[in-house]
Amino acid sequence: MKCIRKLREKGCNVISITEQAKGCDDKTVLDIAKQRNAILITFDKQFGYVIPLLSPDFIFDTLKWVIFDSGILLQGKYIVVNESKVRSFPISNA
């Protein structure tokens, strides 16, 4: 995905479920994030279905804001983003 490439170009260590474990269920995604001590960011309200209507540039700009500018503490959380809000939840409670 374009946004993944752009985040990697900015120096982010991005693990893409689409690249590494496409088709896995939500629990597996959370397990992968927990095992790798990774920050999990999704644009999916139901968590598990990629919303195709968002442009790669919108996704990149939003991820860039969440990671670098939002001030949200990301470690140990999974992040749910939509057009109007950002929610974070502890991975351990997922």
TrEMBL record:
Domain of life of the source: Archaea
Entry protein name: DUF5615 domain-containing protein
Occurrences of domain DUF5615 (ranges): 3-51
UniProt cross-references to InterPro entries, sorted A to Z: DUF5615
